[in-house]
């Protein structure tokens, strides 16, 4: 069966290349654009190490030509194609391609998408007042292009940080602060904004839960790579509705921490990142194992699970984020690690793709390194050094 599947996949890739070679001018059909996306998304299905680099590079040119030939409002099926592309580029940005080029491409794409006129409904909704419009959840991702574009930039920027020699520090930190603002300001959606997808295995509530897990995992990855962002948040007073009270009116004030070298995670920040990881996994734990969103959860799982560490030994205090209050009870890392193992093993049995077992391999390796002591390791560095890259979705 596997040999047959590989043969069919190879034939499909060859057919896409043949169609691309016949292109003339800007005439990229919807069918060719979608075929290219599917080829990239499925490249790691039967070879877990194939992250589809050739598809990533080629698709950028294809998408530009495809968009140039669409001068009118994008129809719903074209909105679907664009959303599928953005999702694919998001997950590939954590593993594939030149991180510098990838980041700048995503910035440009974000500006382009912002100015596009798109239909988000199966029927033409141009005559519906803006305040009355509802959207169909994207059939592939469920959530918005805005979130996928921003998370994709997180992946490229963090890889660029790990690959740079320090000469880009000012540039990277400035971009990180912009992305942080985008993630913090992403508006909440309520169920009333959506049409029910009429999927017996996937509810609107589950889609919104995965969306929030992605948003929080983007912030976790960003703060773990650029901890100075948390230092800046310490000087921003929380909104009245988000102030966090202590358990007792006589609880002592937490002691101010001494300034740390740039890029160093303080003890209270360490505890906050740990709490944020458990918060993300708690969100995902509310979603049934039969949900159609399970195939989308690989990336937030790997980001969160690699921060399942012990609290910092020097203090029980946790950094209080003024715009991201976390109220998680203390939980031992072993409890959540076992939940992650069980969830990934069950998912692997259901889908049978090596990508799922690769995610488990990565988190187990990160846990092994962290448990050995020393400075908290970065999962992206571990993946790159050990050749464990794959598509996490």
Characterization of the model:
55% of the residues lie in helices and 0% in strands. It is built from 14 helices and no strands. The longest helix has 22 residues, at 204-225. The chain starts with a helix and ends in a 7-residue tail after the last helix.
Helix share of residues? 55-70%
Tell me the Rg in angstroms: 22 Å
Q: Roughly what fraction of the amino acids lie in strands?
A: under 5%
**How far apart are the termini?**
22 Å
Structural class: mainly alpha
Indicate the low-confidence ranges by residue numbers: 239-260
What is the count of β-strands? 0
The SSE order reads HHHHHHHHHHHHHH
Summary keywords:
0% strand, mainly alpha, 55% helix, 14 helices, 393 residues
Briefly characterize the structure.
This protein is mainly alpha-helical.
Topology, pairings included?
Blueprint: H1 2-21, H2 30-41, H3 53-68, H4 76-92, H5 99-114, H6 145-163, H7 169-185, H8 204-225, H9 228-233, H10 267-285, H11 298-305, H12 333-351, H13 354-371, H14 379-386
Helix pairs in contact: 1-2, 2-3, 2-4, 4-6, 5-6, 6-7, 6-8, 7-8, 8-10, 8-11, 10-11, 12-13
